[in-house]
Design a protein that fits this description.
The protein folds into four domains: 51 residues; 80 residues, no CATH class; 84 residues, 2-Layer Sandwich (GMP Synthetase, Chain A, domain 3), CATH 3.30.300; 128 residues, no CATH class. It is 30% helix and 24% strand. The longest helix has 25 residues.
Length: 410
């Protein structure tokens, strides 16, 4: 890759040439017209060199800018995954028996986020209730809502109640695939091209099947010889945004999505393999953490930070939030530790995540606190599976926060 001169190097070279022509020029005189022209030229030439360096970087997938990356992906037939809408097969409305509901007649809003939905199935209210399927009117993970939530019916028609219960999760809503994720898929395609049905091919099948798929785990022989188990996740992929803003986190795919992906495997997977698609099983992980608070901080303090604490959470709530952030980021089947077959929820990883967000320890280089919200002088996550620090999880499991306990004093 070419190396381009810096602005200072360009300016120095310019002055050398200038002095060879006019030896009397004082290049230290900032008011000199020649010096001013030299500074402007150095800046202009540096900009050209900088742009050329970016063009050079666009030659490689690992360093390409987003626009160039999209073009490389088009050459390989792999496009960046588009956002997808959230949907649910089970929202229960209430009302007067005999009330007829047509497709698209109802609109709902989830008040905490303002996300809008409409019904995609029809029916007649009986026994005071009717179960309808819905989908979000706009794509994105903001439309995902866990089961147990409540939607408000907008301008409910006669015979329909003002609220609806979310019986089945509103799932599958995703944002546009991140540039890093897209880059990783393109590199994977170049480094591991299609090979007649190996594990990497099975992973790519899932992404090709539906644009709302975000992660894939492939397990061979999960149900015996000749079987391939594929575990997919969808929905909330930008964990940081969701956790910071208190949004629902739904990663387990709907039955509809699983069926769509299964149909793709049935049509494209090698005939000798029995491929089955599943959603992971979500399990709760309890965590106890000991903390020393920074000077002047109590568990009931509310740090003022509109970016990192937009909901105005207390210190105790922030600690719980950050443990949840770390747990939500554990991949299906857990973090892999070299030399061990199982996956794990790793206590040290939770501590590292907490440090990134909450540590008050000072960085010796910058002199600034390490954490985004500096409230913890020290922390220690207790053993997750005493007498072991880390918790084993099996290949089809995904982690969510369970009971989080904070103890003051490390």
């Amino acid at each position: 890759m070419a190396t381009f001169p810096t602005p200072v190097q360009i300016q120095t070279q310019y002055f050398k040439i200038l002095q060879s022509i006019k030896p009397s020029i004082n290049t230290n005189d900032s008011s000199s017209d020649f010096v001013i022209r030299g500074n402007v030229f150095a800046a202009f030439a540096s900009g050209l060199y900088g742009d050329q360096a970016k063009v050079d970087n666009d030659t490689f997938i690992s360093t390409s800018r987003p626009a160039a990356l999209t073009l490389r992906g088009a050459d390989l037939g792999l496009l960046q995954l588009n956002p997808s809408v959230s949907k649910s097969i089970g929202v229960t409305i209430s009302g007067t028996n005999g009330t007829i509901i047509a497709v698209g007649q109802l609109q709902f809003v989830y008040t905490p986020t303002g996300a809008l939905y409409t019904n995609t199935t029809s029916g007649v209210i009986a026994g005071g209730v009717l179960l309808v399927a819905i989908y979000a009117l706009s794509p994105g993970q903001i439309g995902n809502v866990s089961a147990g939530g409540v939607l408000q019916v907008i301008s409910p028609p006669t015979g329909v109640g003002a609220s609806a219960a979310i019986t089945n999760p509103i799932a599958d809503g995703t944002g546009t695939e991140t540039t890093d994720s897209y880059r990783s898929r393109l590199l994977n395609r170049l480094q591991q091209p299609p090979a007649g049905g190996n594990a990497n091919d099975y992973r790519n099948f899932a992404f090709a099947a539906d644009s709302s798929v975000r992660t894939v785990l492939v397990r061979r022989f999960g149900r015996g010889l000749g079987t391939v188990d594929i575990y997919i996740t969808t929905g909330t992929s930008d964990i940081d945004t969701a956790v910071t803003n208190g949004l629902s986190i739904v990663r387990v795919p709907s039955g509809t999505l699983i069926n769509n992906v299964q149909a793709y495997y049935n049509a494209n997977a090698p005939l000798t393999d029995c491929a089955s698609v599943y959603g992971p099983t979500e399990i709760a992980q309890n965590v106890t953490i000991n903390v020393d608070l920074a000077i002047g901080i109590t568990l009931s303090s509310v740090p003022s930070d509109s970016v990192h604490n937009p909901l105005g959470l207390t210190v105790a709530q922030l600690i719980t939030r950050e443990i949840g952030r770390a747990l939500y980021k554990v991949p299906v089947g857990g973090w892999q530790i070299p030399g061990l077959a199982n996956g794990f929820v790793v206590a040290a990883y939770i501590e590292q995540s907490i440090d990134t967000w909450l540590s008050a320890e000072m960085d010796p280089t910058t002199g600034l606190a390490i954490g985004n919200i500096p409230i913890l002088a020290d922390r220690q996550v207790q053993m997750l599976n005493s007498p072991f620090w880390d918790q084993v999880i099996i290949g089809n499991q995904i982690v969510a926060p369970g009971t989080i306990t904070t103890v003051v004093g490390v």
